[in-house]
């Protein structure tokens, strides 16, 4: 078993202009304070205030956005980190694990990872992801496209852009097609931090948001040893070299995870489960009395002293006792959150410590709150009630379908940029406007400067002499469109769709 020494993981160096000669605890903490400033002041964090948590296009400020959710996750992550450090101190293991002078950075890395864990999410959440993936999957033809007629000639141009040519390029074409058809919020978060926003965070801070370790171009089943860690795409082909360097800097084996990421994940799991139910009551999808009944009915056995009685029934009884002077809803959720945190945070912290050898190596193939315990069952209870009673509610489903249509529609509007020949698009990028391309010129002008510059930088590193130049240019062009539309807020995407479809 490898020695556990967090000084090998909490790497405070950066890819660009890395600090030199750092030795003291104060100097190291100052570096991570700089990370905090870069993250909190980034536009990606500000945009979370107008992105969906559960209810798209919600005008009620009491209902959570991605930002308010992320702030709650940040607090829970800090709580878990402090609990872990406190227990390690009691066990006199801080110094043995190289954490005696790194407790501040340990907490800060977790907190900031929690705050930015959703920055890559597109408008309308998972339905936005599905819309992007479905649209590209249908238009970047699959391998058997020759046997599937394409009724739209312009669609066929897009498909063939990644098909025709020398056989030697087939593997690359398959790779980029798979990559572009597996947009994922976590992978987009890595792309935003490194490529789009160029935040130049420390290696440890970026490592903490690499939640899943599967490349987006992966095909087939992941290895059984990493099946959980690779259950979703974690990074794109465009960031492959960066992630390879990240692994080297953090001493991670391929497809393994950074140790503190398990804490961020647990904080997210604990936070959103209660929050989704509270938001549903705020939206009048059901009453707090109905929610309690849903939870009661879904819990299998009711015995005195059970975890359900300690958490849910205790919250219900206390809220009823104070109902004459205070809102039953507010009281119930306050006690439910407190009770849930007081049970799940210590459990998550102990699971982290108990499994530290595997977690430190990055190969613990589970979530901290994924086991056969009552604590895991309590989280599943919250999730199952939300799935059954909230996410399947007609009002929620209608909004999600509208979001799917908005993202699909925006991609369709910008499709002319993807149908241009390499020569025409290159001319458009160089001149920004081309008289014979009036529609494409106007669409190109609407793209974010930041995203256009990322495209230009990526393509400038390609060699025009290489046979794969056309495929890679087209890959980055598709990324350009994905970056722009996925970076929109819910309200901006909705308004932009209405404007461009002339339905004001």
UniProtKB/TrEMBL annotation:
GO molecular function, one term: magnesium ion binding
The EC number(s) this enzyme carries: 3.1.5.1
Entry superkingdom: Bacteria
GO BP of this protein: dGTP catabolic process
Keyword Magnesium set for record: yes
Record's catalysed reaction(s): dGTP + H2O = 2'-deoxyguanosine + triphosphate + H(+)
Boundaries of every HD domain copy: 66-273
Keywords: Hydrolase, Magnesium
InterPro entries in alphabetical order: dGTP_triP_hydro_central_sf, dGTPase, dGTPase-like, dNTPase_1, HD/PDEase_dom, HD_domain, PHydrolase_assoc_dom
UniProt-listed PROSITE patterns: HD
Key word Hydrolase present: yes
Needed cofactors: Mg(2+)
Pfam families on file: HD (PF01966), HD_assoc (PF13286)
Subunit structure: Homotetramer.
Physiological role: dGTPase preferentially hydrolyzes dGTP over the other canonical NTPs.
Family: Belongs to the dGTPase family. Type 1 subfamily.
NCBIfam families attached to this UniProt entry: dGTP_triPase, PRK04926.1
Protein name: Deoxyguanosinetriphosphate triphosphohydrolase
Source organism (scientific name): Phytobacter massiliensis
